[in-house]
């Protein structure tokens, strides 16, 4: 049996690589937002915060899926294989901060895919939409502000596509 990854202090095997489970969660939040967007009948103002939260969370999870951490405990004596756990390798909610915490080769790969789709750099959109999730979760705590729904929607879709393309190339 071949195990790829680094051993942790407790004997578990840890590997960091693109993770489809995290990516699928990102896609589901995106799909939920798209369902709201498409059913709004031209009045998106009734759904601003759910749209922001779902699109922003889709962005966050898409980025986090680029480096998923899989922890595999060692096989126990009776031969049973224990359950693996999956976590993002990076933490936080700010999109630019998450992106900057990824390995340089991961950042370059995602940026390259993003540019090939849009012809633009990723960083300005990450800055613009970086705090949308945190601010839209509890909008009553905010003193006001402006949000660009179209920008976060586009960012979510393109990040899903970019991370998927990067993941397929690096897997």
Task: State the main characteristics.
9% strand; 171 residues; 7 helices; alpha+beta
Explain the overall architecture.
The chain contains seven helices and four strands, in the order E-E-H-H-E-E-H-H-H-H-H. Strands 1-2-3-4 form a four-stranded antiparallel β-sheet. The two termini are 19 Å apart. The longest helix has 22 residues, at 149-170. Helix 1 packs antiparallel against helix 7 (149-170). The radius of gyration is 18 Å and the shape is globular. The protein is an alpha+beta fold and 171 residues long. 56% of the residues lie in helices and 9% in strands. The chain has helices spanning 20-39, 48-65, 95-101, 104-118, 123-129, 132-137, 149-170; strands at 6-7, 13-17, 68-72, 85-88.
Radius of gyration: 18 Å
User: What series of H and E elements makes up the topology?
Assistant: EEHHEEHHHHH
The main pleated sheet reads as: 4 strands, antiparallel
The rough form would be described as globular
> What is the end-to-end distance?
19 Å
Secondary-structure-derived class: alpha+beta
Measured by DSSP, the beta-strand proportion falls in: 5-15%
* Contiguous runs where pLDDT drops below 50 for at least 5 residues: 1-7
Q: Can you give the mean pLDDT?
A: 87
Q: Portion of residues in helices?
A: 55-70%
Extended strand count: 4
Biggest sheet strand order reads 1-2-3-4
Tally the helices: what do you get?
7
């Amino acid at each position: 049996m071949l195990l790829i990854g680094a051993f942790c202090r407790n004997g578990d095997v840890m590997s960091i690589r693109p993770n489809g489970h995290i990516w699928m969660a990102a896609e589901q939040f995106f799909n939920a937002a798209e369902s709201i967007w498409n059913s709004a009948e031209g009045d998106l103002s009734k759904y601003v915060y759910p749209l922001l939260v779902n699109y922003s969370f889709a962005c966050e999870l898409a980025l986090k899926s680029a480096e998923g951490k899989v922890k595999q405990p060692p096989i126990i004596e009776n031969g049973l294989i224990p359950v693996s756990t999956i976590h993002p390798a990076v933490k936080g909610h700010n999109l630019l901060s998450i992106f900057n915490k990824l390995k340089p080769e991961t950042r370059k790969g995602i940026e390259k895919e993003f540019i090939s789709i849009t012809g633009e750099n990723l960083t300005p959109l990450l800055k613009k939409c970086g705090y949308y999730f945190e601010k839209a979760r509890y909008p009553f705590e905010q003193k006001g502000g402006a949000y660009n729904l179209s920008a976060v929607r586009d960012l979510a879709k393109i990040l899903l596509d970019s991370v998927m393309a990067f993941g397929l190339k690096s897997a």
